[in-house]
Amino acid sequence: VPKKLVTTVSGCADDAVAGLVACNPGLRLLQGHRVVLRDDLSAIRGRVALLSGGGSGHEPAHAGYVGKGMLTGVVAGAVFASPSVGSVLAAIRAVAQAGAAGILLIVKNYTGDRLNFGMALERARAEGADVRMVVVGDDCAFATPGKAGRRGICGTVLIHKVAGALAEAGASLDEIVEKVTVAAKAMGTLGLSLSPCSIPGSKPSFQLAEDEMELGLGIHGEAGVRRMKVLPADKAVETMLEHMTDPSNASHLSLTPGCSVVLVVNNLGGLSCLELGIVAGAAVHCLESRGIRIARALVGSFMTALEMAGVSLTLMLVDEELVGLIDAKTTAMAWPNIPAGPATTRREEVPAPTEGPRKLQDEPGTGPGTARVERVLERVCSTLLDIQDKLNELDRGAGDGDCGHTHARAAQAIREWMRSRPPPAAPAQLLSALADVLLEQMGGSSGVLYGLFLTAAARSLRGRSDSPAWADAMDAGIEAMQRYGGAAPGDRTMLDSLCAAAQALHALRSPGVDPLQVLAAAVQSAEAAAEATRHMEAGAGRASYIRSSRLEQPDPGAVAVAAVLGAVLE
């Protein structure tokens, strides 16, 4: 039986409704019933009250649509089960006693819902209430619908919205019934799923193979009309829209080029929001290519089937009046808050910002000559390419095994950059330029860390190239890496080698030292520090998530840094 995060299986419908009401100050429970009402019932005096409902398991339907401008109340059954006649009748009486000028029941086309809401309607009429019922059947799945007719699915939410806006504007019961009946006829919905769903405490309703998807299934896990191999999102959407609009399908929706629709892209409960966005884009693109105007698009979870990994598409043909009713304000928490306007894949992009002019410091030709810079950089590149496999091997224990690839990418990028132009000889410009190359080409967090180091180091070297300036540059680079990377020496990262080398470079600040001897000492310190990471616990970086963070081999980042410093010295 699939895992569920419930408190008790028997109380899950009650607990879900209680949780919703607890978090929404605009809602109230009706004592003794699983009925949710607006907390400002007095506001419906003299207006039409709207009631809906059905089984639980379709959240946020239906209680998420209770609010000013949408439903007055809803009646919830157990999971996937119709609510009782007694609860529906209690809800009708509550709004009638609040002074409603007529009551409309909006019911999804399922036998149980029709029977229970219908029985309650008959009893309420016998008590003198003015009650009407609209049954919504928007499912486009079946080419030849049986006697039961088309199922009521996600399109019902649009009917809640249209009826709610009309009632809020003071329309009469007859007018609301007439307008929503017309709207409901010009509407269709079709579902597609990659998985079944399971009622808490039960096994899944059906099985789908790893490579299968099912078209046209209902919101209770009932079987659909067709099983097929999993398709890419764009093809799946095309298949859905073709089925929905196919004239040989008795429950199809006729779409002609130039018509306007409201599109609902509904998560059936278990699809990731990433996939939903892809499906939504594909649906807009597919409709636009048929010459259909998407006056509004709603994307989200509107009427679900527990954790089913699927999506449904609803299309409602609209005119200006209907669009106005869809746009009207509501306080219902599950209605999306989006700007009013059409959906299109042809939105103009914001132009890319222009880059500010680069300040090229025309520093006098201090620092090593260009040829010397090229020689040093070439040594660094060939060193990194030589140790590529070793670094990948060291990285496999803790990371994703790509440290060598990342450094090799950096080496190739530096080589190409040197081929395209002679590197600047001035230290500050050289390090700045290298930072740009690595940020663009290296990738991984190492690329950003090296970029941070070089950018900060370059700032220290502006207009200077004396020995102490290099010690300052090393410290500045390390400080920037620590500030944004969050690691410290001893965390088993590239910083261990860098900090050891920096410590040795502090000797450059003493007058009369031999810079080459200091550099040699710095390289030795870096190599020893890299080797010492073999015995450290990882405190930062990806390796820190590995349970036994003692990895019994040196950190690849620290090894790479030591190798680069060694190549510079050679």
TrEMBL record:
Substrate binds at G55, S56, G57, H58, K108, D113. It comes from the Eukaryota. Keywords: ATP-binding, Cobalt, FAD, Flavoprotein, Kinase, Lyase, Magnesium, Manganese, Metal-binding, Multifunctional enzyme, Nucleotide-binding, Phosphoprotein, Transferase. GO terms for molecular function: ATP binding; FAD-AMP lyase (cyclizing) activity; glycerone kinase activity; metal ion binding; triokinase activity. PROSITE patterns: DHAK, DHAL. The keyword Nucleotide-binding applies. Pfam families: Dak1 (PF02733), Dak2 (PF02734). Its EC number is 2.7.1.28, 2.7.1.29, 4.6.1.15. Residues 345-362 have a biased composition (Basic and acidic residues). GO terms for biological process: glycerol catabolic process. Residues 337-371 are annotated as: Disordered. It catalyses: D-glyceraldehyde + ATP = D-glyceraldehyde 3-phosphate + ADP + H(+); dihydroxyacetone + ATP = dihydroxyacetone phosphate + ADP + H(+); FAD = riboflavin cyclic-4',5'-phosphate + AMP + H(+). Residues 371-570 form the DhaL domain. The active site is at H220. Its cofactor is Mn(2+); Mg(2+); Co(2+). Residues 8-335 form the DhaK domain. GO terms for cellular component: cytosol. Homodimer. Interacts with IFIH1 (via the CARD domains), the interaction is inhibited by viral infection. NCBIfam families: dak_ATP, PRK14479.1. Catalyzes both the phosphorylation of dihydroxyacetone and of glyceraldehyde, and the splitting of ribonucleoside diphosphate-X compounds among which FAD is the best substrate. Represses IFIH1-mediated cellular antiviral response. This is Triokinase/FMN cyclase. It comes from Rhipidura dahli. The lineage of its organism: Eukaryota, Metazoa, Chordata, Craniata, Vertebrata. The gene is Tkfc.
